[in-house]
Amino acid sequence: MQKIPVTRDGKKGSDILIIHSDDVVKIESVKEKELVIHTANNKYYWAATLEAFEEWMYEEGFRLIDQMNVVNMNHVSEYDLKKGIVTLQPEHETQSKAASAAWIHKDHIINVMNMLDELKKLNKSTDPDEFQDDILESILAQEEDSRFARSYAMIQAIFEKKKAEKQLEQSEQRYKSLFRHNPDPICSFDRNGFCTSANPALFTMTGYTEEELLNKSIHHLIVPEQLERWHDFFADTLRGQTRHYEVTFLHKNQSYVELSILNVPIVVNGQFNGVYMIGKDISERKRAEQMLIRSEKLSIVGQLAAGVAHEIRNPLTSLKGFVQLMQTKVKGYDSYFEIMKDELERINFIVSEFLVISKPQSVRYEAKDALQILQNTVVLLSSQALIHKVKLLIEETQDNLSSINCDENQIKQVFINILNNSMDAMPNGGTIRMELLNHDHQHIMIRFMDEGCGIPEERIPRLGEPFYTTKEKGTGLGLMVTFKIIESHGGRMLIHSQVNKGTTVEIILPTALVHSNPLKC
Protein backbone atom coordinates (compact mmCIF):
# COMPACT_ATOMS: atom_id res chain seq x y z
CA MET A 1 0.00 0.00 0.00
CA GLN A 2 1.49 3.29 -1.15
CA LYS A 3 1.49 6.59 0.75
CA ILE A 4 0.57 9.57 -1.43
CA PRO A 5 1.49 13.19 -0.57
CA VAL A 6 -1.40 15.53 -1.46
CA THR A 7 -2.78 18.98 -0.76
CA ARG A 8 -6.36 20.10 -0.29
CA ASP A 9 -6.30 23.01 -2.80
CA GLY A 10 -3.41 22.25 -5.16
CA LYS A 11 -1.70 25.57 -4.45
CA LYS A 12 2.00 25.92 -3.84
CA GLY A 13 2.91 26.27 -0.18
CA SER A 14 -0.21 24.45 1.00
CA ASP A 15 0.12 21.91 3.78
CA ILE A 16 0.99 18.43 2.56
CA LEU A 17 -1.20 15.57 3.72
CA ILE A 18 -0.50 11.84 3.46
CA ILE A 19 -3.24 9.46 2.28
CA HIS A 20 -3.10 5.74 1.56
CA SER A 21 -3.54 4.47 -1.97
CA ASP A 22 -6.17 1.98 -0.76
CA ASP A 23 -8.43 4.92 0.15
CA VAL A 24 -8.18 6.35 -3.40
CA VAL A 25 -11.10 5.46 -5.70
CA LYS A 26 -10.21 7.59 -8.75
CA ILE A 27 -7.39 9.69 -10.14
CA GLU A 28 -8.54 12.44 -12.51
CA SER A 29 -6.25 14.33 -14.86
CA VAL A 30 -7.48 17.93 -15.03
CA LYS A 31 -4.53 19.47 -16.84
CA GLU A 32 -0.94 18.70 -17.56
CA LYS A 33 0.94 17.59 -14.48
CA GLU A 34 -1.99 18.24 -12.17
CA LEU A 35 -4.11 15.41 -10.84
CA VAL A 36 -7.18 15.29 -8.63
CA ILE A 37 -7.02 12.40 -6.17
CA HIS A 38 -10.52 11.21 -5.21
CA THR A 39 -11.49 9.25 -2.13
CA ALA A 40 -15.08 8.25 -1.42
CA ASN A 41 -15.57 11.36 0.72
CA ASN A 42 -13.01 13.94 -0.44
CA LYS A 43 -10.76 15.07 -3.21
CA TYR A 44 -7.16 16.21 -3.08
CA TYR A 45 -4.56 17.60 -5.47
CA TRP A 46 -1.18 16.35 -6.52
CA ALA A 47 1.29 17.82 -8.97
CA ALA A 48 2.34 14.88 -11.16
CA THR A 49 1.39 12.97 -14.31
CA LEU A 50 -0.53 9.74 -14.78
CA GLU A 51 2.70 8.12 -15.89
CA ALA A 52 4.12 8.76 -12.46
CA PHE A 53 1.60 6.26 -11.09
CA GLU A 54 2.37 3.59 -13.64
CA GLU A 55 4.84 1.64 -11.47
CA TRP A 56 2.32 0.91 -8.78
CA MET A 57 -1.07 1.47 -10.47
CA TYR A 58 -1.37 -2.05 -11.84
CA GLU A 59 -0.20 -3.73 -8.66
CA GLU A 60 -2.84 -2.00 -6.58
CA GLY A 61 -5.73 -2.44 -9.00
CA PHE A 62 -5.80 0.98 -10.74
CA ARG A 63 -6.89 0.88 -14.38
CA LEU A 64 -7.21 3.64 -17.02
CA ILE A 65 -10.86 3.45 -18.12
CA ASP A 66 -11.27 6.94 -19.56
CA GLN A 67 -8.87 9.32 -21.27
CA MET A 68 -8.84 11.39 -18.11
CA ASN A 69 -9.69 8.88 -15.37
CA VAL A 70 -7.75 6.14 -13.61
CA VAL A 71 -10.00 4.22 -11.24
CA ASN A 72 -9.26 1.77 -8.48
CA MET A 73 -11.03 -1.35 -9.78
CA ASN A 74 -10.92 -2.86 -6.28
CA HIS A 75 -13.61 -0.39 -5.27
CA VAL A 76 -16.01 -0.86 -8.21
CA SER A 77 -19.32 -1.75 -6.58
CA GLU A 78 -21.54 -1.41 -9.69
CA TYR A 79 -21.07 -1.29 -13.46
CA ASP A 80 -23.84 0.19 -15.61
CA LEU A 81 -23.29 -1.29 -19.09
CA LYS A 82 -25.81 0.97 -20.82
CA LYS A 83 -24.47 4.23 -19.40
CA GLY A 84 -20.85 3.08 -19.33
CA ILE A 85 -20.40 4.24 -15.75
CA VAL A 86 -18.72 2.49 -12.80
CA THR A 87 -19.69 3.26 -9.20
CA LEU A 88 -16.75 3.40 -6.79
CA GLN A 89 -17.42 2.65 -3.13
CA PRO A 90 -14.93 1.05 -0.68
CA GLU A 91 -16.38 -1.55 1.67
CA HIS A 92 -16.00 0.58 4.79
CA GLU A 93 -17.49 3.75 3.23
CA THR A 94 -21.12 4.86 2.91
CA GLN A 95 -20.51 7.44 0.16
CA SER A 96 -19.51 6.70 -3.42
CA LYS A 97 -18.26 8.34 -6.61
CA ALA A 98 -18.74 7.58 -10.29
CA ALA A 99 -16.38 7.44 -13.24
CA SER A 100 -16.94 7.15 -16.99
CA ALA A 101 -15.98 3.88 -18.63
CA ALA A 102 -17.64 4.49 -21.97
CA TRP A 103 -14.59 4.17 -24.20
CA ILE A 104 -13.32 0.92 -22.63
CA HIS A 105 -14.73 -2.36 -23.92
CA LYS A 106 -17.26 -3.71 -21.44
CA ASP A 107 -15.72 -7.24 -21.48
CA HIS A 108 -12.42 -5.82 -20.31
CA ILE A 109 -13.97 -4.13 -17.29
CA ILE A 110 -15.98 -7.26 -16.42
CA ASN A 111 -12.85 -9.41 -16.76
CA VAL A 112 -10.83 -7.11 -14.51
CA MET A 113 -13.65 -7.04 -11.99
CA ASN A 114 -13.88 -10.84 -11.99
CA MET A 115 -10.12 -11.28 -11.71
CA LEU A 116 -9.78 -8.73 -8.89
CA ASP A 117 -12.73 -10.37 -7.14
CA GLU A 118 -10.80 -13.65 -7.11
CA LEU A 119 -7.84 -11.75 -5.70
CA LYS A 120 -10.04 -10.30 -2.93
CA LYS A 121 -11.34 -13.77 -2.06
CA LEU A 122 -7.78 -15.03 -1.86
CA ASN A 123 -6.79 -12.19 0.48
CA LYS A 124 -9.67 -13.04 2.83
CA SER A 125 -9.19 -16.78 2.65
CA THR A 126 -7.54 -18.88 5.36
CA ASP A 127 -6.83 -21.73 2.94
CA PRO A 128 -5.03 -20.56 -0.23
CA ASP A 129 -4.83 -24.12 -1.56
CA GLU A 130 -8.57 -24.11 -2.27
CA PHE A 131 -8.08 -21.44 -4.95
CA GLN A 132 -7.23 -22.32 -8.53
CA ASP A 133 -6.21 -19.71 -11.05
CA ASP A 134 -8.13 -21.37 -13.92
CA ILE A 135 -10.39 -18.31 -14.34
CA LEU A 136 -7.40 -15.99 -14.60
CA GLU A 137 -5.58 -18.23 -17.06
CA SER A 138 -8.71 -18.62 -19.18
CA ILE A 139 -9.24 -14.84 -19.43
CA LEU A 140 -5.56 -14.25 -20.20
CA ALA A 141 -5.52 -16.94 -22.91
CA GLN A 142 -8.56 -15.51 -24.72
CA GLU A 143 -7.43 -11.88 -24.81
CA GLU A 144 -5.80 -10.74 -28.04
CA ASP A 145 -5.51 -7.02 -27.32
CA SER A 146 -2.01 -6.49 -25.91
CA ARG A 147 -3.16 -3.52 -23.79
CA PHE A 148 -5.71 -5.65 -21.96
CA ALA A 149 -3.47 -8.74 -21.91
CA ARG A 150 -0.82 -6.81 -19.97
CA SER A 151 -3.41 -5.81 -17.40
CA TYR A 152 -4.65 -9.39 -17.02
CA ALA A 153 -1.11 -10.77 -16.80
CA MET A 154 -0.33 -8.29 -14.04
CA ILE A 155 -3.40 -9.39 -12.03
CA GLN A 156 -2.50 -13.03 -12.52
CA ALA A 157 1.07 -12.35 -11.38
CA ILE A 158 -0.24 -10.56 -8.29
CA PHE A 159 -2.64 -13.47 -7.66
CA GLU A 160 0.16 -16.03 -7.85
CA LYS A 161 2.41 -13.91 -5.65
CA LYS A 162 -0.33 -13.46 -3.03
CA LYS A 163 -1.14 -17.16 -3.13
CA ALA A 164 2.51 -18.09 -2.61
CA GLU A 165 2.72 -15.60 0.28
CA LYS A 166 -0.44 -17.04 1.81
CA GLN A 167 0.87 -20.59 1.49
CA LEU A 168 4.17 -19.58 3.08
CA GLU A 169 2.33 -17.76 5.86
CA GLN A 170 0.10 -20.77 6.47
CA SER A 171 3.11 -23.08 6.51
CA GLU A 172 4.81 -20.81 9.05
CA GLN A 173 1.66 -20.72 11.19
CA ARG A 174 1.44 -24.51 11.16
CA TYR A 175 5.06 -24.76 12.17
CA LYS A 176 4.60 -22.16 14.92
CA SER A 177 1.50 -23.97 16.16
CA LEU A 178 3.33 -27.29 16.23
CA PHE A 179 6.23 -25.61 18.01
CA ARG A 180 4.25 -23.48 20.48
CA HIS A 181 1.47 -25.90 21.41
CA ASN A 182 3.55 -29.07 21.50
CA PRO A 183 3.29 -30.58 25.01
CA ASP A 184 6.91 -31.75 24.76
CA PRO A 185 9.76 -29.25 25.22
CA ILE A 186 11.41 -28.06 22.00
CA CYS A 187 14.24 -25.58 21.59
CA SER A 188 16.78 -24.57 18.98
CA PHE A 189 20.46 -23.73 19.39
CA ASP A 190 22.99 -21.89 17.28
CA ARG A 191 26.40 -23.41 16.57
CA ASN A 192 27.75 -21.99 19.83
CA GLY A 193 25.12 -23.77 21.89
CA PHE A 194 23.04 -20.71 22.75
CA CYS A 195 19.28 -21.23 22.92
CA THR A 196 17.71 -19.19 20.11
CA SER A 197 14.09 -20.27 20.56
CA ALA A 198 12.04 -22.43 22.90
CA ASN A 199 8.39 -23.37 23.29
CA PRO A 200 6.31 -22.81 26.45
CA ALA A 201 6.62 -26.49 27.43
CA LEU A 202 10.35 -26.01 28.08
CA PHE A 203 9.73 -23.03 30.36
CA THR A 204 7.05 -24.96 32.26
CA MET A 205 9.24 -28.03 32.61
CA THR A 206 12.33 -26.14 33.85
CA GLY A 207 10.67 -23.35 35.83
CA TYR A 208 12.68 -20.68 33.98
CA THR A 209 11.31 -17.74 31.96
CA GLU A 210 12.10 -16.74 28.36
CA GLU A 211 14.39 -13.96 29.57
CA GLU A 212 16.36 -16.46 31.67
CA LEU A 213 16.91 -18.99 28.86
CA LEU A 214 16.83 -17.34 25.43
CA ASN A 215 20.14 -16.35 23.85
CA LYS A 216 21.99 -18.07 26.67
CA SER A 217 23.69 -21.40 27.31
CA ILE A 218 21.63 -24.07 29.07
CA HIS A 219 24.61 -25.63 30.86
CA HIS A 220 23.06 -24.82 34.24
CA LEU A 221 20.05 -27.00 33.33
CA ILE A 222 22.10 -30.17 32.90
CA VAL A 223 23.42 -32.15 35.86
CA PRO A 224 27.22 -31.65 35.95
CA GLU A 225 28.13 -35.32 35.49
CA GLN A 226 26.18 -35.43 32.18
CA LEU A 227 27.37 -32.11 30.72
CA GLU A 228 30.33 -33.56 28.79
CA ARG A 229 28.07 -36.24 27.31
CA TRP A 230 25.58 -33.58 26.22
CA HIS A 231 28.38 -31.64 24.50
CA ASP A 232 29.45 -34.78 22.62
CA PHE A 233 25.95 -35.40 21.29
CA PHE A 234 25.61 -31.69 20.37
CA ALA A 235 28.87 -31.81 18.40
CA ASP A 236 27.73 -34.99 16.61
CA THR A 237 24.50 -33.26 15.55
CA LEU A 238 26.40 -30.24 14.20
CA ARG A 239 28.20 -32.74 11.96
CA GLY A 240 24.84 -33.90 10.60
CA GLN A 241 24.03 -36.85 12.88
CA THR A 242 20.63 -37.29 14.51
CA ARG A 243 21.23 -38.39 18.10
CA HIS A 244 18.82 -39.92 20.62
CA TYR A 245 19.79 -40.09 24.29
CA GLU A 246 18.61 -39.49 27.84
CA VAL A 247 19.69 -36.65 30.09
CA THR A 248 18.75 -35.24 33.48
CA PHE A 249 17.76 -31.58 33.72
CA LEU A 250 17.71 -29.50 36.88
CA HIS A 251 14.48 -27.62 37.54
CA LYS A 252 14.85 -24.09 38.88
CA ASN A 253 13.80 -25.44 42.29
CA GLN A 254 16.70 -27.96 42.04
CA SER A 255 14.46 -31.00 41.51
CA TYR A 256 15.40 -33.48 38.78
CA VAL A 257 13.62 -33.88 35.44
CA GLU A 258 14.46 -36.98 33.39
CA LEU A 259 14.31 -36.35 29.64
CA SER A 260 14.49 -38.42 26.50
CA ILE A 261 16.17 -36.17 23.91
CA LEU A 262 16.24 -36.19 20.11
CA ASN A 263 18.85 -33.91 18.52
CA VAL A 264 18.16 -32.92 14.89
CA PRO A 265 20.52 -30.75 12.81
CA ILE A 266 19.28 -27.39 11.45
CA VAL A 267 20.27 -27.10 7.79
CA VAL A 268 20.37 -23.67 6.09
CA ASN A 269 21.65 -23.34 2.51
CA GLY A 270 23.20 -26.77 2.73
CA GLN A 271 25.15 -25.90 5.90
CA PHE A 272 24.59 -27.29 9.41
CA ASN A 273 23.62 -24.09 11.16
CA GLY A 274 22.41 -25.27 14.56
CA VAL A 275 20.53 -27.95 16.47
CA TYR A 276 16.91 -28.64 17.28
CA MET A 277 16.48 -30.40 20.62
CA ILE A 278 13.16 -32.22 21.04
CA GLY A 279 12.58 -33.61 24.53
CA LYS A 280 10.09 -35.82 26.30
CA ASP A 281 9.65 -35.85 30.06
CA ILE A 282 10.18 -39.44 31.20
CA SER A 283 10.38 -38.72 34.93
CA GLU A 284 7.18 -40.64 35.64
CA ARG A 285 8.37 -43.57 33.55
CA LYS A 286 11.68 -43.60 35.42
CA ARG A 287 9.89 -43.52 38.75
CA ALA A 288 7.63 -46.35 37.59
CA GLU A 289 10.69 -48.37 36.57
CA GLN A 290 12.29 -47.78 39.97
CA MET A 291 9.08 -48.82 41.71
CA LEU A 292 8.95 -51.94 39.56
CA ILE A 293 12.55 -52.80 40.45
CA ARG A 294 11.81 -52.22 44.11
CA SER A 295 8.68 -54.34 43.83
CA GLU A 296 10.65 -57.15 42.22
CA LYS A 297 13.24 -56.98 45.00
CA LEU A 298 10.44 -57.09 47.55
CA SER A 299 9.00 -60.13 45.82
CA ILE A 300 12.36 -61.89 45.84
CA VAL A 301 12.91 -61.07 49.50
CA GLY A 302 9.40 -62.23 50.29
CA GLN A 303 9.95 -65.57 48.56
CA LEU A 304 13.26 -65.96 50.36
CA ALA A 305 11.69 -65.01 53.67
CA ALA A 306 8.79 -67.42 53.27
CA GLY A 307 11.12 -70.33 52.58
CA VAL A 308 13.78 -69.59 55.18
CA ALA A 309 12.32 -67.71 58.15
CA HIS A 310 10.50 -70.61 59.79
CA GLU A 311 13.40 -72.98 59.15
CA ILE A 312 15.75 -70.58 60.92
CA ARG A 313 13.53 -70.06 63.95
CA ASN A 314 13.38 -73.72 64.93
CA PRO A 315 17.15 -74.25 65.36
CA LEU A 316 17.38 -70.70 66.71
CA THR A 317 15.08 -71.59 69.59
CA SER A 318 17.21 -74.66 70.38
CA LEU A 319 20.43 -72.65 70.29
CA LYS A 320 19.00 -70.01 72.59
CA GLY A 321 17.82 -72.65 75.07
CA PHE A 322 21.18 -74.42 75.15
CA VAL A 323 23.07 -71.13 75.61
CA GLN A 324 20.89 -70.31 78.60
CA LEU A 325 21.41 -73.84 80.01
CA MET A 326 25.18 -73.65 79.54
CA GLN A 327 25.28 -70.26 81.25
CA THR A 328 23.89 -71.89 84.41
CA LYS A 329 26.42 -74.72 84.25
CA VAL A 330 29.61 -73.02 83.13
CA LYS A 331 31.11 -70.28 85.27
CA GLY A 332 33.49 -67.50 84.25
CA TYR A 333 32.18 -66.96 80.71
CA ASP A 334 29.11 -64.85 81.40
CA SER A 335 30.26 -62.04 79.09
CA TYR A 336 30.60 -64.49 76.20
CA PHE A 337 27.18 -65.98 76.89
CA GLU A 338 25.62 -62.50 76.95
CA ILE A 339 27.17 -61.72 73.55
CA MET A 340 25.87 -65.02 72.18
CA LYS A 341 22.35 -64.30 73.45
CA ASP A 342 22.43 -60.76 72.03
CA GLU A 343 23.46 -62.07 68.63
CA LEU A 344 20.78 -64.75 68.73
CA GLU A 345 18.23 -62.06 69.53
CA ARG A 346 19.55 -60.06 66.60
CA ILE A 347 19.05 -63.05 64.29
CA ASN A 348 15.55 -63.47 65.68
CA PHE A 349 14.79 -59.79 65.00
CA ILE A 350 15.97 -60.09 61.37
CA VAL A 351 13.76 -63.18 60.91
CA SER A 352 10.81 -61.21 62.30
CA GLU A 353 11.47 -58.47 59.75
CA PHE A 354 11.50 -61.14 57.03
CA LEU A 355 8.11 -62.40 58.17
CA VAL A 356 6.59 -58.90 57.99
CA ILE A 357 7.69 -58.69 54.34
CA SER A 358 6.87 -62.24 53.34
CA LYS A 359 3.22 -62.48 54.30
CA PRO A 360 0.20 -60.16 54.34
CA GLN A 361 -0.45 -58.75 57.78
CA SER A 362 -3.86 -58.54 59.41
CA VAL A 363 -4.58 -54.83 59.28
CA ARG A 364 -7.52 -52.86 60.61
CA TYR A 365 -7.81 -49.25 59.53
CA GLU A 366 -9.46 -46.87 61.97
CA ALA A 367 -9.57 -43.11 62.42
CA LYS A 368 -6.76 -42.30 64.85
CA ASP A 369 -5.07 -39.25 66.32
CA ALA A 370 -1.56 -39.13 64.86
CA LEU A 371 -0.34 -36.92 67.70
CA GLN A 372 -1.50 -39.45 70.27
CA ILE A 373 0.30 -42.28 68.44
CA LEU A 374 3.50 -40.21 68.27
CA GLN A 375 3.29 -39.26 71.96
CA ASN A 376 2.86 -42.93 72.92
CA THR A 377 5.87 -43.84 70.78
CA VAL A 378 8.00 -41.13 72.43
CA VAL A 379 7.07 -42.47 75.88
CA LEU A 380 7.95 -45.99 74.74
CA LEU A 381 11.40 -44.92 73.53
CA SER A 382 12.15 -42.39 76.28
CA SER A 383 14.38 -44.73 78.30
CA GLN A 384 16.31 -45.75 75.20
CA ALA A 385 16.70 -42.07 74.25
CA LEU A 386 18.00 -41.32 77.73
CA ILE A 387 20.68 -43.99 77.36
CA HIS A 388 21.74 -42.48 74.00
CA LYS A 389 21.68 -38.93 75.46
CA VAL A 390 19.02 -37.94 72.96
CA LYS A 391 16.15 -35.52 73.59
CA LEU A 392 12.83 -36.27 71.90
CA LEU A 393 10.88 -33.04 71.39
CA ILE A 394 7.46 -32.66 69.78
CA GLU A 395 7.87 -29.01 68.84
CA GLU A 396 4.90 -28.00 66.73
CA THR A 397 1.40 -29.32 66.33
CA GLN A 398 -1.78 -27.77 64.98
CA ASP A 399 -4.89 -27.62 67.11
CA ASN A 400 -7.17 -28.62 64.26
CA LEU A 401 -4.97 -31.50 63.09
CA SER A 402 -7.03 -34.01 61.14
CA SER A 403 -7.14 -37.64 62.22
CA ILE A 404 -5.78 -40.36 59.94
CA ASN A 405 -7.20 -43.71 58.84
CA CYS A 406 -4.53 -46.18 59.86
CA ASP A 407 -3.49 -49.34 61.65
CA GLU A 408 -2.15 -47.86 64.90
CA ASN A 409 0.43 -50.61 65.52
CA GLN A 410 1.89 -50.29 62.03
CA ILE A 411 2.17 -46.49 62.22
CA LYS A 412 3.74 -46.85 65.65
CA GLN A 413 6.26 -49.28 64.12
CA VAL A 414 7.06 -46.67 61.47
CA PHE A 415 7.71 -44.01 64.14
CA ILE A 416 9.89 -46.45 66.13
CA ASN A 417 11.99 -47.32 63.07
CA ILE A 418 12.57 -43.68 62.18
CA LEU A 419 13.42 -42.61 65.74
CA ASN A 420 15.77 -45.58 66.18
CA ASN A 421 17.56 -44.66 62.96
CA SER A 422 17.89 -41.06 64.13
CA MET A 423 19.29 -42.12 67.52
CA ASP A 424 21.78 -44.46 65.82
CA ALA A 425 22.91 -41.50 63.66
CA MET A 426 23.73 -39.48 66.82
CA PRO A 427 26.23 -41.61 68.81
CA ASN A 428 27.23 -38.55 70.86
CA GLY A 429 23.67 -37.52 71.62
CA GLY A 430 21.58 -34.65 70.38
CA THR A 431 17.97 -33.63 69.81
CA ILE A 432 15.28 -35.11 67.60
CA ARG A 433 12.57 -32.58 66.81
CA MET A 434 9.13 -33.60 65.59
CA GLU A 435 6.30 -31.63 63.98
CA LEU A 436 2.71 -32.53 63.04
CA LEU A 437 1.08 -30.26 60.46
CA ASN A 438 -1.83 -30.21 58.04
CA HIS A 439 -0.08 -30.66 54.70
CA ASP A 440 -3.21 -29.76 52.69
CA HIS A 441 -6.97 -30.35 52.94
CA GLN A 442 -6.54 -34.09 52.47
CA HIS A 443 -3.17 -34.92 54.05
CA ILE A 444 -1.17 -34.38 57.23
CA MET A 445 2.62 -34.31 57.57
CA ILE A 446 4.73 -35.77 60.36
CA ARG A 447 8.28 -34.43 60.24
CA PHE A 448 11.31 -35.85 62.10
CA MET A 449 14.53 -33.78 62.23
CA ASP A 450 17.74 -35.08 63.78
CA GLU A 451 21.26 -33.68 64.24
CA GLY A 452 23.07 -36.81 63.12
CA CYS A 453 25.84 -37.60 60.69
CA GLY A 454 23.55 -37.26 57.68
CA ILE A 455 23.34 -39.29 54.48
CA PRO A 456 25.21 -38.56 51.21
CA GLU A 457 22.80 -37.27 48.58
CA GLU A 458 23.62 -40.00 46.04
CA ARG A 459 22.63 -42.72 48.56
CA ILE A 460 19.18 -41.34 49.41
CA PRO A 461 17.38 -42.75 46.30
CA ARG A 462 18.37 -46.31 47.29
CA LEU A 463 17.06 -46.10 50.85
CA GLY A 464 14.33 -48.67 51.34
CA GLU A 465 15.94 -51.32 49.15
CA PRO A 466 16.41 -54.68 50.90
CA PHE A 467 19.90 -55.11 52.38
CA TYR A 468 20.90 -51.56 51.44
CA THR A 469 21.83 -49.63 54.58
CA THR A 470 24.04 -46.79 55.78
CA LYS A 471 24.61 -48.48 59.14
CA GLU A 472 27.63 -50.65 59.89
CA LYS A 473 25.48 -53.50 61.28
CA GLY A 474 22.18 -52.70 59.55
CA THR A 475 20.19 -54.86 57.15
CA GLY A 476 18.07 -52.22 55.42
CA LEU A 477 14.95 -54.24 56.21
CA GLY A 478 13.62 -51.83 58.86
CA LEU A 479 13.43 -48.92 56.41
CA MET A 480 12.10 -51.24 53.74
CA VAL A 481 9.23 -52.27 56.03
CA THR A 482 8.66 -48.58 56.87
CA PHE A 483 8.29 -47.64 53.19
CA LYS A 484 5.95 -50.59 52.68
CA ILE A 485 3.69 -49.60 55.58
CA ILE A 486 3.49 -45.96 54.43
CA GLU A 487 2.68 -47.00 50.86
CA SER A 488 -0.02 -49.41 52.06
CA HIS A 489 -1.60 -46.47 53.93
CA GLY A 490 -1.73 -44.41 50.72
CA GLY A 491 1.01 -42.05 51.86
CA ARG A 492 4.57 -41.25 50.92
CA MET A 493 7.83 -40.70 52.74
CA LEU A 494 10.45 -38.11 51.77
CA ILE A 495 14.02 -38.06 53.08
CA HIS A 496 16.25 -34.96 52.98
CA SER A 497 19.75 -34.99 54.41
CA GLN A 498 23.03 -33.11 54.62
CA VAL A 499 26.24 -34.79 55.68
CA ASN A 500 27.32 -33.77 59.21
CA LYS A 501 24.21 -31.59 59.59
CA GLY A 502 21.37 -34.05 60.00
CA THR A 503 18.44 -35.76 58.32
CA THR A 504 14.81 -34.77 57.93
CA VAL A 505 12.14 -37.41 57.30
CA GLU A 506 8.69 -36.26 56.16
CA ILE A 507 5.75 -38.65 56.24
CA ILE A 508 2.63 -37.51 54.36
CA LEU A 509 -0.53 -39.50 55.13
CA PRO A 510 -4.12 -39.09 53.92
CA THR A 511 -6.64 -37.92 56.48
CA ALA A 512 -9.62 -39.96 57.64
CA LEU A 513 -11.84 -37.84 55.36
CA VAL A 514 -10.11 -39.30 52.31
CA HIS A 515 -10.71 -42.85 53.50
CA SER A 516 -14.25 -42.40 54.77
CA ASN A 517 -14.86 -46.15 54.90
CA PRO A 518 -12.52 -48.21 57.11
CA LEU A 519 -10.61 -50.77 55.09
CA LYS A 520 -9.98 -54.31 56.17
CA CYS A 521 -7.46 -56.60 54.62
Automatic annotation (TrEMBL):
The keyword Ion transport does not apply. Residues 243-294 form the PAC domain. One of its GO terms (biological process) is regulation of DNA-templated transcription. Residues 154-181 form a coiled coil. Residues 171-241 form the PAS domain. This is histidine kinase. GO terms for molecular function: ATP binding; DNA binding; phosphorelay sensor kinase activity. The keyword Repeat does not apply. Pfam families: HATPase_c, HisKA, LytTR, PAS. It is an enzyme of class 2 (transferase). It comes from the Bacteria. Residues 307-513 form the Histidine kinase domain. Its EC number is 2.7.13.3. CDD domains: HATPase (cd00075), HisKA (cd00082), PAS (cd00130). Keywords: ATP-binding, Coiled coil, Kinase, Nucleotide-binding, Phosphoprotein, Sporulation, Transferase, Two-component regulatory system. It catalyses: ATP + protein L-histidine = ADP + protein N-phospho-L-histidine.
